[in-house]
Design goal:
Order of helices and strands: HEHEHE
Distance between the termini: 29 Å
Number of helices: 3
Strand order of the largest sheet: 1-3-2
Structural class: alpha+beta
Shape: elongated
Radius of gyration: 17 Å
Helix content: 25-40%
Length: 113
Amino acid sequence: MIRRLIIPPDLFIIFTHPDYRRQNVGQQFMDWGLAKAEELGFDFYLDSTPYGRPLYEANGFSYLEENINHPKMDNPDEAWKNVEEKVGPFTFWLMWKATGQKSEEIQSAPVSK
């Protein structure tokens, strides 16, 4: 018997250029991604930035976990220090939506053990 490991597709990162925000561009990407996940039968997981979280929540995603990132380096050079000063710690939220879940449905996230 041959078993196949199915690895869901992974789209690394998408941002909407500031000139195009509030023009439904993000929702168009979301509609495409949700349709593709539904077609393939995959739950949809994503990391949300503060800018994207309202869009994901409006589309029925559930909050799973907060991730605060503060990259460190043992011997930072000046370029690293400049970026660290400008960016500082940043927060992402892991979010999830089940296959077949409608945007208006409230659902608890799966618990891993």
